[in-house]
Amino acid sequence: MPGAIHAEGLVKTFGDVKALDGVDLDVPEGTVLGLLGPNGAGKTTAVRVLTTLLQPDSGKAVVAGLDVLKHPNEVRRCIGLSGQFAAVDEYLTGRENLQMVGRLYQMSAKASKARAEELLERFNLADAAGRTAKTYSGGMRRRLDLAAALVVSPPVMFMDEPTTGLDPRNRQQLWEVIRELVSGGTTLLLTTQYLEEADHLAHDICVIDHGRVIARGTSDQLKAQTGGERIEVVVHDPEHLATADEVLRTFGKGASKTELHTRRITVPVTGGAKLLAEVIRELDTRGVEIDDIGLRRPTLDDVFISLTGHAAEVAEEEAEAAK
Ligand SMILES: Nc1ncnc2c1ncn2[C@@H]1O[C@H](COP(=O)(O)OP(=O)(O)O)[C@@H](O)[C@H]1O
Ligand SMILES: [Mg+2]
């Protein structure tokens, strides 16, 4: 399994915080594992252990067929890592940064230049290529860091929240780059707080919280575990929210969720379209005017809420970095 990632029983404690509390992971060669979890769940710690940057207290990890603890130098040669802007030198221009990475990996000067230009173009950095990285905004640095991780294409890649702080257009472009990488055979472990991202990119998903794996499976499997469909209704008049909630709870199979500012109520149901018709009739009878109503499958967000008890949140720095 030259490109696979395998971890067993990883434990890492910082003082009295158990950042990793017995984590097992498996990423078959050529696939993408999405590691999901709220802030502080242990995602970065897991990535740091697997990329040889941090020693676990116990457990074992094998990356690209090599024992991470016994052969860290060899492991480093077959992996790429992006996150924390580790690869970016402030005092070099964007272009110089990328060329330098190429040279570090023993590419010829010509090949390094060509690769740098290609990546600058891809990550919308061509206009800023001649400026030093320290003049870059948070979003631009993140793109440069990602580009640096992609100068050479190692068989195993780790990306720690690669698209946090990117605007939607740059995020889409990165997804495309990731898809290409993976179709070329790269194995990828990706951490993210964007459930949509895991939905689009990951073959398998592993949800962690407090250093423990609390669920794993494909996106569809996780959604199925969370229970069937949801009825979602948007009432026209906020004053009708209470009545509508009462109706939905009568027909629903679990707790309802009301979002005041969008006048939206969601409830898990079983019974499909027939039940939906009954709900519509009942709402009508009770005089509740509706703007929208429908049946939908649970999203990964629903999965995340039901597993961790809270919605996915994205770091505060994000708004800043997106500028
Ligand atoms: N170097 C460190 N020293 C002390 N505590 C740490 C250190 N790194 C991480 N932690 C703690 O370990 C837990 C997991 O952190 P982390 O792996 O960064 O989570 P995530 O990346 O999922 O947000 C958190 O409680 C964090 O505060
Ligand atoms: Mg992190």
TrEMBL record:
This enzyme's EC code(s): 7.6.2.2
Pfam families named among the record's database cross-references: ABC_tran, DrrA1-3_C
GO CC, any one term: plasma membrane
InterPro entries: AAA+_ATPase, ABC_transporter-like_ATP-bd, ABC_transporter-like_CS, ABC_transporter_ATP-binding, DrrA, DrrA1/2-like_C, P-loop_NTPase
One GO term of the biological process aspect: doxorubicin transport
Keyword Transport attributed: yes
An annotated Gene Ontology molecular function: ABC-type xenobiotic transporter activity
Primary site of residence: membrane
UniProt KW keywords: Antibiotic resistance, ATP-binding, Cell membrane, Membrane, Nucleotide-binding, Translocase, Transport
SUPFAM superfamilies xref list: P-loop containing nucleoside triphosphate hydrolases
Compartments, record wording: Cell membrane
Secreted keyword on record: no
Domain ABC transporter: 5-235
Source taxon at top rank: Bacteria
Family, as annotated: Belongs to the ABC transporter superfamily. Drug exporter-1 (DrugE1) (TC 3.A.1.105) family.
Protein name listed in UniProt: ABC-type xenobiotic transporter
Native organism: Streptomyces agglomeratus
Lineage: Bacteria, Bacillati, Actinomycetota, Actinomycetes, Kitasatosporales
